[in-house]
Amino acid sequence: MTYVLQQLLNALQVGSIYALIALGYTMVYGILTMINFAHGDLFMVGAFLCFVAAVTFNLPFVPVLLLSMIGVAFLGVVIERFAYKPLRQAPRVSAIITALGVGLFLENFTLALNPYPKQIPQLLENTTWTFSGLSVSSLQVFVIILSLVLMWILDLIVRRTMVGMAMRAISWDKTVAPLLGVPVNMIISVTFAIGTSLGGAAGVMYALAYPVIDPYMGIMVGWKAFIAAVVGGIGNIRGAMIGGYILGAVEIMVVAFMPSTYRDFIAFVLLLVLLIFRPYGILGKPHPQKV
Amino acid sequence: MGANGIMLSIENLTIAYGNIKAVDNISLEVNEGEIVTLIGANGAGKSSTLRAISGIVPYSGRIRYRQEDLRGVAAHRIVAMGMAQVPEGRGIFGNLTVMENLKLATWQRKDKGDIPKDYERAFGIFPQLQKRRDQLGGTLSGGEQQMLAVARALMSRSSMMLLDEPSMGLAPMLVRDIFQVLCDINRAGTTILLVEQNAHMALSIAARAYVLETGRIILSGPGKELLGDSRVREAYLGVDA
Ligand SMILES: Nc1ncnc2c1ncn2[C@@H]1O[C@H](COP(=O)(O)OP(=O)(O)OP(=O)(O)O)[C@@H](O)[C@H]1O
Ligand SMILES: [Mg+2]
Asked: What is the ipTM of this complex?
């Protein structure tokens, strides 16, 4: 019993990070029907900004988090403006290739500056509590709660504010929104800023939990978060959150009962099976596409 | 108002999609306070003209609103200048509630304090919408969606409204209601450019009309006069002249 609880807690922690990254994929897809394949690498940049802020500038945790989020958001907005926007009317494959190229650029640029993996110092005091066999680390609890708070804020923005309303409207029909006075390009930039900043926050939390970082860390995590977004229903914000936690749970459960090398294999197979039965994901709906 | 009270002036407008010329060198004017209609068959170029005015398709020629050249002005800025469009097919956001659809149209307004009063006005004109205010736009009937589309344009408090076939797909009763609302809105001070295939209704409420055929204006004049014109009667009113 405690073993299951222990694994559940681990699943929540990993799942929180996947969920935060998955949100970035799903928000961008929702508004542009485009997969930002550089998003996993933006997550990696978040982890490296965490290193720079913590080691080079010797800042405490809160400014580290804010700096990473803002830095990654800025990068995300710049990438959209200069790499993706010119391709909005181009065939979809051009945008995909460009995104992959941007990702490779980010990896290799980071590699050029950091030829060796970096060690993140301990930014937060980490105490471990034990309740009748169940060990809970304060870092774990912190990652889970901070992620939930960020997702709650995002949910409020999307559901309750004018900007969120505009995001939803644009995801339904991009051509009508400007006729009502909605500045579409500005909303797209805001969407990129919010989506990528969540990826940056995930990068910081990942770096706290697994403190050795390298420029390729975003590839596998990025793919998994992308799959989490698809499982939840790409374009659906609550779906991305659910997908992230499901993926975290599947992964941890596989490791708990099988050799750990089976982890990714079984996780991906389960997700493929789910997509056979629910091709639009858990919360996704076939959207009446306008041409 | 400006010289001669001209609200919207279009000179030598040409719109091409690739090699296809959808609109070929047309000119037209809308005076302040008028209802002007642009009628024509399928594919004549009516929607393209409205899209150019609203700044969402590229064009050559000159479009001026209250003397200001609209070339290069972003679509949402044109709304801020006071011109709203009810697009073809209504353009309701199916994933937003009725209330949210209305609220979104207030994006460019500076007088945020007056907005609650305008919801009341919109619901006064379309009482059905009030009952459905928390329902998703996608769940409304076609007629209700058209009401919502007009109400939404009202919420932007624009001085000029462009409407693209508001009668499309509606029962005759409802068409009359919508046209009555357009007359009321116009009497309250909104200038209207109305695109229609329902030539009879459009010509009977319009001060002036233009007839568009395969991208060219082939006829123009007072609405009542065109109603009696043999060519119009033959081609657009289904009457043997
Ligand atoms: N996005 C586009 N790409 C290519 N051709 C287009 C496009 N939009 C319109 N056209 C063409 O331009 C011409 C004019 O179209 P437009 O939609 O302006 O006509 P319309 O008068 O509004 O017709 P309807 O009454 O059917 O709405 C048509 O021949 C149409 O096929
Ligand atoms: Mg049309």
From this structure: 0.92
What is the topology classification, in CATH, of domain B1-82+160-241?
Rossmann fold (3.40.50)
Q: What is the pLDDT of residues A63-104, one digit of tens each?
A: 999 999 999 999 999 999 999 999 998 998 999 999 999 999
Domain ranges of chain B: 1-82+160-241, 94-157
Instruction: Look at residues A185, A176, A30 and name the one whose alpha carbon lies nearest to residue B101.
Output: A176
Q: Which CATH architecture has domain A2-277?
A: Orthogonal Bundle (1.10)
Determine contact, residues B156/B110, Cβ cutoff 8 Å: no
**Length of chain A in residues, anyone?**
291
Task: Write the CB contacts of A76 (distance below 8 Å, at least 6 apart in sequence).
Answer: A42, A192, A193, A195, A196, A197, A199
pLDDT single digits (tens) B144-190: 999 999 999 999 999 999 999 999 888 899 899 999 999 999 999 99
Task: Identify the CA nearest to B156 among candidates B104, B120, B192.
Answer: B104
Residue ranges of chain A whose CB lies within 8 Å of a chain B CB: 162, 165-166, 168-169, 171-173, 175-184, 288
Bridge-based pairing state of the strands B6-17 and B60-65? antiparallel
| Most ligand 1 atoms within 8 A of CB, residue of B14, B20, B23 to mutate | B20
- Is the pLDDT assigned to residue A138 strictly greater than 80? yes
Which residue in A165, A171, A179 is closest to B75 by CB distance?
A179
Q: Whose CA is nearest to atom 12 of ligand 1?
A: B22
Mark yes or no for CB contact B93/A176 under 8 Å. Answer: yes
Distance CA A68, CA A200 (A): 6
Q: Which atom of ligand 1 is nearest to the CA of B197?
A: 25
Give the number of A-B residue pairs with CB atoms closer than 8 Å: 70
Sequence-distant (6+) residues with CB within 8 A of A254 are A262, A263, A266, A267
